[in-house]
Amino acid sequence: MPRDLTEGSLSKNLLYMAVPTMGGFAVQVLYDIVDMFWIGKISSRAIAGVAVFSSIFWLISVLNEIIGTGSVSMISQAYGAKDYARVNRTIEQTIVFKIFVALIATILLILFLKPLMMFFSKDEEVIAAGIDYGFWRIFFLPIFFATYSIYTALRTTGESKLPNIMMAVGAVTNMVLDPIFMFTRVPGLNIRGLGLGVKGAAIATVVASSVVFVWGLIVLFRGQGVIKITPAGLFKLDWSIDKKLLVVGLPSGIEMFLRNLSNMIMVKLFSMYGSTVLAAIGIVDRMIGLAFVPLMGFSIGTSTIVGQCLGANKIERAEQTVLLAALYNALFLSALVVLANISPQLVIEFFTKDQAVVREGAFAIRLGSWAVLIAGFSISLMSAFFGAGYTKAAMFSSIVGRWFVQVPYSVLVALVLKLPIKFLWFSFLFAEIGEISYASAVFFKGKWKSYRVI
């Protein structure tokens, strides 16, 4: 049942929200790893193609971020203020807007996917894999966007377990379907499959996401705690809420756009070093995702608690929760840094035996683990900004890290000085140092404590 996070033990509330969320994201990351494992059975170029599409896909997901970020602070603060009617109206409006912007994103991706794939790679096999995988993901984008709204609605009202059970069911379904859809014969089991190749991995994702989406809608229509939406509410605009969703979420959307645009630039710079490096990026991204499991758990939990506490005007409690989350993140990620530096080659070899890819990936995982450790602190601090709805701070933090530090450094390394690839990997570490510097200054200045969106 939903929980009032403005009362009781700080540590218990944070773990109550974070641990189930970690479980849900852990299964999702496991799916990403298994997905890349099966794709690697096709070829390292198939891995590269999916990696390039993923960069393009996350750039367009900025439209999802605009509405989603605004909904986190608005729903949690309304819940903290015990304005449950506004909670439900905000949830309804969030779902409607997500579907609308997803349709816009679908049109844009249909028009520009092939030219963008060709911009990042001249390898025909890489391009074909990215397009085969991408078109199926594109057509079902509205379901992908709206499903995240269902998760947000439940989490921001203190329901930590159900959305993560949904995520886990979706991910497990996906993992089961992947080899069946991809191969003529499922490796190791000799079960007849559909033989759809890379396209099959995307279709498996679509099927699993659709199951969770229908499940989530049924839960919200039937009622879960204070949440109970109506079909009529999904077709009735409330401009007072819609405007705030846009205003609060727009800085976060800009932040995500600029962050993902910088990632695309990085992919382009890395592509100058060949398809081997692109394949390494695809694998390393999945593995670094493991480190983000605790980060996402504590981030989502902290944002919800901060929002509820600010809605109830319990400012000191909100600040203490953020600092506690930063401590927990540091403990979790320190352990992961040790593990990442023991034998990273074995991790890469799980996906591919291409020794060139193994060498690049091993170095990147070692360096990336330190970058993620620093990211743990900045993400903890930015959870306060998201809970408060003070999203401009998160936007500027990302701009500093990506556009004042990472991109200029990377252009200098790859285009001007033409240094070896190892120097380019260091850009991720430098970016996180820039981001934590700005986030710390804004957090301790304290303006976010007086910010409200209700």
Q: What is the count of DSSP helices, taking H or I runs of 4+ residues?
A: 15
Spatial order of strands in the largest sheet: 1-2
Gyration radius (Cα, Å) is: 21 Å
List segments where confidence is low: pLDDT < 50 over at least 5 consecutive residues. none
Find the structural class using helix and strand composition: mainly alpha
Strand segment count: 2
Number of domains: 1
Overall average pLDDT:
83
Overall spatial form = globular
Largest sheet: 2 strands, antiparallel
Instruction: List the secondary-structure elements in sequence, H or E.
Output: HHHHHHHEEHHHHHHHH
Question: What is the CA-CA span between the terminal residues?
Answer: 24 Å
Question: Could you estimate the helical fraction of the residues in percent?
Answer: over 70%
Strand coverage percent: under 5%
Organism: Pseudothermotoga hypogea DSM 11164 = NBRC 106472
GO cellular component, one term: plasma membrane
GO molecular function: antiporter activity; xenobiotic transmembrane transporter activity
Protein name: Multidrug-efflux transporter
Explain what you see.
- The protein is mostly helical.
- The protein has one domain (10-450).
- 81% of the residues lie in helices and 1% in strands.
- The chain has helices at residues 10-40, 44-60, 62-80, 84-120, 124-139, 141-155, 162-182, 198-222, 239-271, 275-311, 315-340, 344-349, 355-388, 391-416, 421-445; strands at 185-186, 191-192.
- A two-stranded antiparallel ribbon has the order 1-2.
- The model has no long low-confidence stretch (mean pLDDT 83).
- One of its GO terms (molecular function) is xenobiotic transmembrane transporter activity.
- It is found in: Cell membrane.
